[in-house]
Write a structure and sequence with these properties.
- The chain is mostly beta strands.
- Helix content is 0%, strand content 30%.
Length: 159
């Protein structure tokens, strides 16, 4: 990522791409992403879920980090124009005044830094955890009161 928030001429900027193992047949799966580190496919539906880190320097509580659901190719989640479900970016929102992006499945607290995400498919935890989403939150570095530093779990239906 070349910046905290910016426009970039590289069509790969702010995307999740898919390609063959030899890097052939590259295509953009979704766009409008700031910084996704964790993603996984729902073991029941085989649809993509991923986390996204919101931009910095909008204060302690804005913008949210997010959990996103991308069941189809070509979805746009709004970065750098919008953050979270409908927060216009103070620098770039004016270039796209209408919110017509795919909203996140869930706004997470700002700056929790979700750096890992997976569906639990094991058998070591109690049965109610099967197929739940586990998100590892790295935690904040630029917030006056620290937040994150935990692993949370939730069901895809609660997101």
């Amino acid at each position: 990522m070349p910046c905290n928030v910016c426009l970039d001429n590289d069509p790969r900027f702010g995307t999740i791409m898919r390609m063959n193992a030899d890097a052939s047949h590259q295509e953009t799966f979704v766009k409008g992403i700031r910084m996704s580190v964790g993603f996984d496919w729902d073991p029941r539906t085989h649809k993509l879920w991923f986390t996204n880190n919101g931009r910095d320097w909008m204060g302690d509580n804005r913008p949210p980090d997010t959990l996103n659901f991308a069941p189809t190719i070509g979805m746009d989640f709004g970065f750098p124009y919008y953050d979270g479900k409908d927060i216009s970016d103070p620098s770039y929102g004016k270039f796209h005044p209408t919110y017509d992006f795919s909203p996140p499945a869930l706004n997470l607290p700002a700056h929790v830094a979700p750096l890992g995400m997976t569906f639990y498919t094991g058998h070591l935890f109690p049965a109610e955890y099967l197929n739940q989403i586990f998100i590892a939150e790295h935690g904040s570095w630029n917030r006056s009161t620290k937040i994150g530093y935990q692993v949370i779990s939730l069901t895809s239906s609660s997101a």
